[in-house]
Structure formats: C-alpha cells, structure tokens
Amino acid sequence: MAKGTNDAKLLIQSLRKAYAATPTSLKIIDLYVVYAVATALIQVAYMAMVGSFPFNSFLSGVLSCVGTAVLAVCLRIQVNKDNKEFKDLPPERAFADFVLCNLVLHLVIMNFLG
Amino acid sequence: MATSKVEGSSSLRHAFGGVLSVFILLLIGVVAFSIRLFSVIKYESVIHEFDPYFNYRVTQFLSKNGIYDFWNWFDDRTWYPLGRVIGGTVYPGLTLTAGTMWKLANSLNIPLSVETVCVFTAPIFSAFAAWATYLLTKEVKGPGAGITAAAILAMVPSYISRSVAGSYDNEAVAIFALIFTFYLYIKTLNTGSLFYATLNSLAYFYMVCSWGGYTFIINLIPMHVLLCIVTGRYSSRLYIAYAPLVVLGTLLAALVPVVGFNAVMTSEHFGSFLVFIIIHVVALVYYIKGILTPRLFKVATTLVLTVGIAVCAVVVAILVALVASSPTKGWSGRSLSLLDPTYASKYIPIIASVSEHQPPTWPSYFMDINVLAFLVPAGIVACFLPLSDASSFAVLYLVTSVYFSGVMVRLMLVLAPAACIMSGIALSEAFGVLTRSMKFHITKYFECSHTEAPAKLGESTSTESSAPLENMTKSDTTEKPEVARKEKVARRKQKKEKELTENAHVKPVSAKKEKRPLVLPLEASIVSVFLLIVLGGLYVLHCVWAAAEAYSAPSIVLTSHSHDGLHVFDDFREAYAWLRHNTEVDDKVASWWDYGYQTTAMANRTVIVDNNTWNNTHIATVGTAMSSPEKAAWEIFNSLDVKYVLVVFGGLVGYPSDDINKFLWMVRIGGGVFPHIKEADYLKDGQYRVDAQATHTMLNCLMYKLSYYRFVETDGKGFDRVRRYEIGKKHFKLTHFEEVFTTHHWMVRIYKLKPQKNRIRGKSRKSKLGSKSTSSKSGGMTHKNPWN
Known about the structure:
The structure holds two protein chains of two kinds.
Chain A: H1 2-20, H2 24-50, H3 55-79, H4 91-113
Helix pairs in contact in A: 2-3, 3-4
Chain B: H1 2-34, H2 38-42, H3 51-65, H4 67-71, E1 74-75, E2 84-85, H5 86-89, H6 93-107, H7 114-140, H8 143-155, H9 157-163, H10 171-191, H11 194-210, H12 214-230, H13 236-255, H14 262-265, H15 267-291, H16 294-324, H17 333-339, H18 343-347, H19 349-353, H20 362-369, H21 372-383, H22 389-407, H23 412-449, H24 461-464, H25 468-473, H26 475-489, H27 493-506, H28 522-550, E3 558-562, E4 565-569, H29 571-582, E5 588-590, H30 596-603, E6 606-607, H31 616-627, H32 630-639, E7 644-648, H33 659-673, H34 696-700, H35 702-708, H36 712-715, E8 719-720, E9 725-726, E10 737-742, E11 748-753, H37 761-767, H38 776-780
Parallel strand pairs in B: 5-6, 5-7
Antiparallel strand pairs in B: 1-2, 3-4, 7-11, 8-9, 10-11
Helix pairs in contact in B: 1-7, 1-8, 3-6, 3-30, 6-7, 7-8, 7-10, 8-23, 10-11, 10-13, 11-13, 12-15, 12-22, 13-15, 21-23, 22-23, 23-26, 23-28, 26-27, 29-30, 31-32, 31-33
C-alpha cells in the first residue's frame, strides 16, 4: 500500500517534470483548452440547477466550448514540433485552419443559440 | 543530360495523363447524365412515382413564396383535419438544391420551368456522384482505380433506378452527398488537415439536410475510428479527422428542423459520442506514454485501470438505465427494423407493408449490381495489399452496406457506391498486373530481336551483344535496358509509379539478381485483358438495358405493347385532371395513402392521408372505412368531411398494383387500431379471394363494392384480369355513394358521398313496426333502401 502511494507520488512528480519541459506556446494552448472545458462544466452545472429550457441554447453553449477545445487540441497536435507527421506543415497554415474552423463553428452556434 | 531528357518526357507524360484523365471524367459525366434520359425519350419529361410529387409540390411552393414562408409552412391540404408542418418534417436538401438551381437559371435568363429543373436534378447529381467516386477511390487506391470506379458508378443499375430523369426523390442528391462526405473524411485522414475537416463537417451537414440515411454516416465513421484504434492504427490524423466532425456535425445536424434535438437524444447518435470519449481517452494515453518512461507508464496504467474501471461501471450503469427506460431503447422505428428485421412486421405494419422495405432476393442482386457482385471480393483482397486507413474504411463500408442491403431492398442503393469502389480497385489492379506482364514480354521480345541497345545505366553493355537465347535466361542483366525502355512506353501513371519503384530497386543493385516483377505468361495476359474488356462490355450492355427497359417507367403513365401497336394508359392523370376541374377547391378526397401526394400535387385537392404515413391511427381510420360495409364507411367518411372517394382498380386491363391487391394491408392496419376489423373475416380458408367463394364480409365491404360496381357491364361475366377469375357479387347497387367518374380503362374510379336525406324514414318505420297502416307508397317500397 505504501509502495502504491509512493509510486503514485513518483508518477505525479515525473508527470509534472515532463510537462514542465514543453514549450510555452503549447502550454498556452493547453491553458485555453482547460479554460474552455471549465466553462462547459460550469454551464452543465448551471443547467442542472436551473433546468434545461431552452435546450437549444444549452446545447449550443456547451458544444461551442467543447468544439473550440477540440479545435485547440487539433492545433496543438499540428504545431507540436515533436510530431513527425506534421513537420512539413507551417504553423501559420495550422493557425489559419484553426481560425477558419472556429469561424464556421461560431457561425453555427450563433444561428442555433436562438 | 540523359536524366533531364527522361524527366522532361515524364513530365510531358504526366501532363498528357492529366489531360486524358480530365477528358475521361468529362465523358463519364456525360454518360451518367445520358443513360438516365431514357424515360424522357420514351415517355415525356414528367415526374415519376409518388414521393417525387410531394417534393415537386414543395419546390413549387418554395419557388413561388421564398424561403421564409417555406420554413414556416403549415400545410392544411393534407392529413385533413390534422394538417402537416412541412417546415419541420421534410428533409430540405433536395428542394433547396433544385430551388437554387431554378433561381440561378432564371437569373441568367434561361427560362426553365420548375418541373424541368426537378426532372433533371437527378441526372445532374449522378454525374457529380461519379466524379465524387473518382475522388474517393483516388484517395483509397490511386487515379487508375478512381477512373474505373467512376465509370462503373455512372452506369450501375441500382443507382439508376433511384435517380432516373423524373425520379425527383431524396436519394438523387443524397448519394452524391454520401460519397462526397466519405471522400472528405478519407482526405482528412490521409492529410491531417483541419481545412478538410471543416469541409467534411459541411458536407455532412448537406447530407443531413438531404436524407434520413445520414445516420449511416454518423455510425459508420465511428465504427471505422474504433476499428483503427483497435488494430493499433491510431494516429493524430485520426483524431483531427474525427473529433471536429463529431462536434461540428452534431451542431449542424441539430440545425436542421426535421432532426432537431434528435441529434443528441436518439440512440442513432450515441455511437458517435461513445467513440468521441474513447478517442479522447486513447489520445491521452498516447500522450502520456510519450512523456513518461516505460516503467512509470506501467505504474500509471495499473493505477488508472483500478480507478477507471470503477468509474466506468457507474457511468455505464446510468447510461443503460436511461436507455432501457424507453420502450424502443432510444432507436426510431425505422432504424430498429434495420437492426432487427422482424421488428416491423410485429409492431409497425405500415413499415412492413412498403414493398421497398422487403428483403431482396438473389436475382435482384444480379439485376442491380450485375458483374460487380463477383468483382467485389477481388476488390476486398486488393484492399488488403497493402492495408491502409483508407482501404480499411472501404472494406468496412462495403461489409456494413452488404448487411443492410440484405435487410431492405431499398438499401441496395447504399451498397452501389461501395461495390463500385471495390470493383474499380479490383479491375484496375487486374489491368495493372496484366498489362505489366504484356509489356514485360513484349519488350523482352523486342529486346531479343534488336541487336543494339541504348544502355542507360552503363553496366549492361557487355551483355547486349550476346545471343537472344542467352538474353532470355539472363533476366538480371536484361532488366535495366528493359526498365529504361519500359519508361518510354508507359502511359498510365499508376504503372509508372510501380516502375519507378522498380527502377529505384534496380539502380543500387548493379550486377546482383534484382527483384523480378510478378508477370504472367504473354498469351494468358492477352486473353485475360480481352476477356476483361468483354466483361466490361457485357456490364455496359446490361446497364443500358436495365436503364431503358426496367427502370425508366414513370408509374404515372403505363404502356403495353399489343398486336395493334402501343397502348398508353394515362388514367391517373385523367382522374386527377377531372378532380381538378370538376370539384370545388375545398373538397376533401379520401383514398388509400399511396395516392395522397399525387392527389395534392396534380389535382390540388385536400386529402385525408398521404405517403408520409406519420399518423398510424388516421391511416387505420381510412383502412377501416374501406373494410366496412357501406353505411359504416359512409359514417366514417362523413365525420372526416370527405366528399369524394378514389379507388384504383386494375381488373379491366390487368394492372396488378390496384387497391384490391393492397386491400389486406388496409385490413391489417385498420385492425391494428380498431379491433372489430379482423383479418380472418376477409379470408376464406386462409385464402384471399373475391370470387363466389369469398366471405360475406369481403363481398360487402366498401372496397369491393367501389371497385366492382357495374364491372359486370363490361363483358357480361365480370372476369377480373388481375385475379383471373369471375367476381363473386356481380349485380348490386350502391346505397350511400354515387359514381361520378371512371377513367377510360377503368383504372381510377371516383365516387361521391351521397348527402343525408332530410327525413329519415327508417326511424318512423321502426316506431310503427307491427302496424300495417303505412301508405301504399311505403308498402311498395319497403324492400327498398331509404337512401334512394
């Protein structure tokens, strides 16, 4: 049991150390993802308290947070220099794709918000 | 200098190949368009069948009133007295597409009518579908396979049957949307570009707008993602291809009014959410694996598994409880009948009664996809050598569509593109191997007959002057000049790729034995190529025959050939035109639901039930009325404000799809809601008959009477040409209905409800039952019906 907790502590330490080594730009994207997911969770908690009418507004709110989080993760995958599959892709192109996809997502959201 | 010459000639070949491909694709588009024009040539430019008439009516409304009125349209001319919310129950893709094309054409001052645009929408989109198949198969295998698959899809009879000129139905644009969505998904998977992921979501949105079969896409793609994860082919491109599609796709699907919140609440979409969660878990696992050492990763997995399994069990229990609480486990009736083929016949007779929903027979497979039926297994094998993400998707698509086509014959249409892709791959690989063998042998033959040889790589000059026999045995040293010569002769890009790889193999290995290309003997290759071309020719012949003879009939006009020429039966339009010109605008017409759409579109009268079949009780009411005796039927129709009743009767000319043949379905559907209608009452010894042996209930029901009223006057004996016997009750009068119109070949018969009499003599007679003090008038008429 002690070995278990010891292992867990070691695990968390090594995770923290490895994560600290990632470049700052990627950490900014990660922070954005965490913020988006937290907003989604807050909206779900609010819905649980207040009720789900109007349902389309709830759906569009939650899905916009989840959607932009997913797109940010895709951007992070494409911009990460350790990723060998995307080394030919210039990061400007990746960011432009990210912006375009977000535009489409938010156009749909605004239409669905009601 | 020599290499630059090679490069110049190869780029010229590239350019020539590109131009040739574009030209071939243009021709494929023209073929796809023209093969569907047989019905316009043989009959006229008219909308076919039943469902297209509804779409045509909606498109007319859209073109006249604009999009906002279309979105908010409440139709009071059908399902009287309930009405139908058109904006919320129709898949708008097809009508919006045709409306846009009409608006575009008219804005360019090309005066096309709405009907012309509607009739020719399907052929235009089938040309687009053929091009989309080229793009999809190019992503899976290569351009050669793409062109073959596109050529096959342009002509496959299964797709022709639902997209012939005049068949203005959802599948006309939906199949193009399906193939295009799959192409963009595979493109995103191959390139990992977020731009294509966005386009993929937009194409999926177009598919959701067009057809209820979009649930196939939103279940097939998660299945493929799961397959890739399970077989260890997870990559970040998979995440980029799938995750944005789920989020954006669900949102876009919820935007379409007919889908609405079903996009997040029905079981059809749960699969995509489940795989969404799974792919995030897998992505996280891979990420952590990347930043931890292997030992620590093992520790992490044991920790996570113990905690994770407990959490998972709780979540799964909640989900199962939620889903199990609904009687259909969250699936809609139509989807359930796909998963459990016996479901519809047990619970929803309306779905079971549609002939398109029956399982297909083996002959229909050979009719609809012909030669492809045995090219498909060869294609599956070719997809496995080598296996990539895209080819595993093609195999999965084929397997699932084969299963669903086995459940419902209508879904053979979804099988058609998969079969074409597989056959295109198989044919292209076969041609590749055979032509490569032929070229290998031919160049070797020329090599033997030539004494001088342009030694490209220098090492083979010593062997060139040796005897021909020796050359044939020394395969390794004759490879190089042959490879060089093969480069000059090569035409197809695909084979060039193979030879370039062979060249790359040849260059580093100078004098050792190089890799021999797999070749077949020359005679076998020539005969095989010839036989494959004959196979293709037979396929084309069959497709053209099927398009011309089998699938070009607009069911609204029938023809038959007899010894004195061609007979045309235009009875349906005759009847609808009579209704349009001889009845009031607000009159209600009752008929079986098959003819509802045509009646509202062509006769412009309000109907009680139509092909949308959304209200089972209403249809059961009409079915009960048709199965009841005259008085009860009159009561039911009168309560619905019906003025006219329409029946279709084929007994005089031998038209087999008439209402008497459909009658048992009316009894079953009516009996499902009103228990006093029992099917056994209409069958004699379990057999359905209308001759002298028929049951009393059958001979007195409204459908029998309305179909066979005065039928005995045609030939004196009442011989029914469809049932092939004489009818049971020949001479009878109608008491509550009067005949107002029968078409030229007696195919459509229209009756009017007689108005109620002012004085009900029956009541007064009942009170003086025993007395004989009635007047002589009533005495002489006691046996007569008070309604006359």
